[in-house]
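Is this the right way to post structure tokens for a design question? Let me know if I should format differently. Anyway, here goes:
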């Protein structure tokens, strides 16, 4: 298993980053919040999880070990694959997922694109004793950059919403609505979740 990558960020798209390690560019799938903290040309370290399929090897990258561990544990629930697990972590922090499962808050889980009411009930039932109690204390790896600047957060939020399955037009509208209320907030994680709440209500 590849537990982490540490190297220079060689490139970044809306869903992936390329980290150069020993002269080799490793592509990692990341949540929008993690991607926002990876700046091209800068050194970075991400926790990783390698998903092996018959036709592919896919590396997923995370801000810290806790996020990676939750990504792996939620996949033990039937019907939850890596894409849906990544979407869950794009919408909720690891502790928010723990609280939702512990409180049987299916409404919080259905905010994730791809999870309906029955799916949320199944996830609660199957993960009840697997995620543990909220930790409330977690920090990013050294090497991750500061939150995105006001100029850059909006494209990250729009890209994150589109990658989670929302139409581009709806993603743009939600980002505009959040921008009007964001003030000095530039944390992509906070802004993405605010946009998702708007889309879920709509």
């Amino acid at each position: 298993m590849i537990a982490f990558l540490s190297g220079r960020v060689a490139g970044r798209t809306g869903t992936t980053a390329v980290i150069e390690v020993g002269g080799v560019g490793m592509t990692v799938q990341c949540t929008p919040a993690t991607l926002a903290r990876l700046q091209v040309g800068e050194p970075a370290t991400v926790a990783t999880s390698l998903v092996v399929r018959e036709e592919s090897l896919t590396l997923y990258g995370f801000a810290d070990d806790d996020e990676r561990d939750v990504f792996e544990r939620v996949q033990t629930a039937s019907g939850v694959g890596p894409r849906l697990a990544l979407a869950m972590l794009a919408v909720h922090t690891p502790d928010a997922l723990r609280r939702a499962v512990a409180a049987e808050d299916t409404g919080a889980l259905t905010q994730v694109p791809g999870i309906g009411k029955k799916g949320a009930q199944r996830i609660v039932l199957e993960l009840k004793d697997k995620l543990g109690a909220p930790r409330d204390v977690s920090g990013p790896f050294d090497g991750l950059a500061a939150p995105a600047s006001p100029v850059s957060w909006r494209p990250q939020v729009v890209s994150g919403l589109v990658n989670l399955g929302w139409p581009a037009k709806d993603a743009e509208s939600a980002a505009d609505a959040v921008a009007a209320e964001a003030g000095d907030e530039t944390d992509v994680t906070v802004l993405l979740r605010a946009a998702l709440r708007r889309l879920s209500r709509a």
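Format looks fine. Someone answered above. Worth noting: Confidence is low (pLDDT under 50) at residues 137-151. DSSP finds nine helices and five strands in the chain.
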